[in-house]
Amino acid sequence: MNRRNYRRYHRNYHRYRYNRYYKLYQKVNALQRKRLADYSMRKITECTLFLVLGVCLLFLYQMLVFPRIDLEGSKVIEVEYQSKYKEPGFASSYFGENLSPMVKVKGKVDTSKIGEYPITYQVTYHGFSTTKTRIVKVVDSSYPEITFTTDDKKLYLCPDSKYLYDDYKAVDNYDGDITDKVKVTKNGEKLIYVVSDTFGNKTVVERDVFYKDILEPTLELDGGDVTTLAIGDTFTDSTYQVSDNCDKNIKVEVSGDVDTSKAGTYERVYTATDSSSNTAKKVQKVIVLEPSKQGVIYLTFDDGPRSGTTDIILNILKEENVKATFFVTNSGPDDLIKRAYDEGHAIGLHTASHDYSVVYASGDSYFNDLKLVSERVKRITGEESKLIRFPGGSSNTISRKYSPGIMSYLTQEVVKRGYRYYDWNIDSRDAEGGRFNADEITKFVTSKLSHDKVNMVLMHDIKVTTMEALRNIIRYGKENGYVFDKIGPYTDMVMQHVNN
Ligand code: ZN
How far is the CA of 460 from the centre of ligand 1 (A)? Predict the structure, then answer.
């Protein structure tokens, strides 16, 4: 073997040797690593088991030793500023034993101040205590409110006018009045109102703007809704008050004919028109009364109807072919009112209750009572009566006891409301507690009759004596050239002197 060959051989030999040991080393190494891995794995598993066991023991310990507290609702809750805070509740127990009454709750929530308020719940049982905490946040999440004195969706301005920014208001629950913080911007035909409160709660309101007058003028007649005249009186139009939101000069036109030479009801129509053609209308009724008929006898019967007297009186009137007037109340049967109306007599309004303390308690009280009897008559006859007889007459003084001055007010007010009232100038005295018999009653009436005046006779169809006197009164009248009539819609009023 020469030197060269030896070297080659030697090199190869070492290569071979090295390879052998290297492979061996690799084998041993792999084995060791596997062992190590297995060992680690075992240790990790052990540790985990211990940990789980530890936690379990801890949990068990807690469960066995410490009482429980469970909070109702969230651990963090929000309540609104200035609302009322209500404790959401809690429960405490130890192995089924209710400890809730033993829980001490500490901490207060002041909803009048924004902030965070911790509430602690603590319970101690056999020396072991448990504490839980809840955070209550008092927040302002409500939005400011923008309100308008006019329509909040549409704003109507007078043509060619300026917007005065004086028709809105902004109020916030926290900041109070923040009207001065409202920013108004114009976007085409819209106005946009924006305002934010201290906590950034932002309110945006949009309104459409129109330059157009949509409001009619205001028109009031000084003369009222009804005016009453006698034939031959001169009629003058009522004065009036007129105004408009946009225009200063408003035209008022008056139309409708009034003929003061003829009794009847007329209408004068007042029409106010502004420059945008909005109109307001008021109607005044003009009632022209007939001249009083001298020598005519108007037999009037108050306080009915009543079964047993009113029906007999109706029989007599029918037999004598005389028309009379019945001022009715709300008592008695409907069919007697119906019969009187059907047989051509006039039905007037006396009073529903005939209780002076009710009727004359006040103006409203009078008209409430009048409405009740008026509704009855309308229901029975189908016709609204405008004829009134005041209980006790317009001259009564008993009303002063309930309401001083009421007759002065009522005698004017009923006429303004389109009624006519009729007092009497001959009293049959049949209502004076049965003091007088039929002959005396007849005499009281016949002795006062006159051809030089209207004879308005007061009687009561609920009285037996009246019933008995009636035939003689009628006979006397006829024999002495008198004419009987009922009160008509335009009969001139007969008024006594007002004393209250
Ligand atoms: Zn009466």
Answer: 8
> How much is the pLDDT for 59?
84
Q: CATH code for 68-139?
A: 2.60.40.10
Q: How far is the CA of 475 from the centre of ligand 1 (A)?
A: 26
Pair type for strands 264-273 and 251-255: antiparallel
Q: How far is the CA of 338 from the centre of ligand 1 (A)?
A: 20
* CATH number attached to the domain at 296-485: 3.20.20.370
Q: What is the pLDDT of residue 17?
A: 66
Ligand 1 center from residue 319 Cα (angstroms): 26
Q: How much distance in Å is there from the Cα of 490 to the middle of ligand 1?
A: 23
pLDDT higher than 90, residue 23: no
Tell me how far apart the alpha carbons of residues 428 and 231 are, in angstroms, rounded to a whole number.
Answer: 30
Ligand 1 mean position, distance from CA 391 (Å): 5
349 CA from centroid of ligand 1 (Å): 10
pLDDT at 110 over 80: yes
* Number of neighbours of residue 349 by Cβ within 10 angstroms: 26
Q: From the CA of 331, how far away is ligand 1's center (Å)?
A: 12
CA distance 243 to 215: 11
Q: Is the dihedral of CA 347, 350, 352, 353 positive or negative?
A: negative
Looking at the domain covering 145-211, what would its CATH class be? mainly beta
pLDDT for residue 161: 87
Ligand 1 centroid vs 304 CA: distance in angstroms? 9
Mean pLDDT over 32-61 rounds to 89
d(CA 477, ligand 1 centre) in Å: 24
Phi first, then psi: what are they for 56, rounded to 5°?
Answer: -60, -45
- CATH 3.30.300.130 assigned to 219-289: no
> Which H/E stretch holds residue 315?
helix 310-320
d(CA 187, CA 283): 45
* Share of residues in the chain with pLDDT > 90 (%): 82
The pLDDT score that the predictor gives to residue 441 is 97
CA of 350 to the centre of ligand 1 (A): 7
Of 400, 493, 472, residue with least CA distance to 430: 472
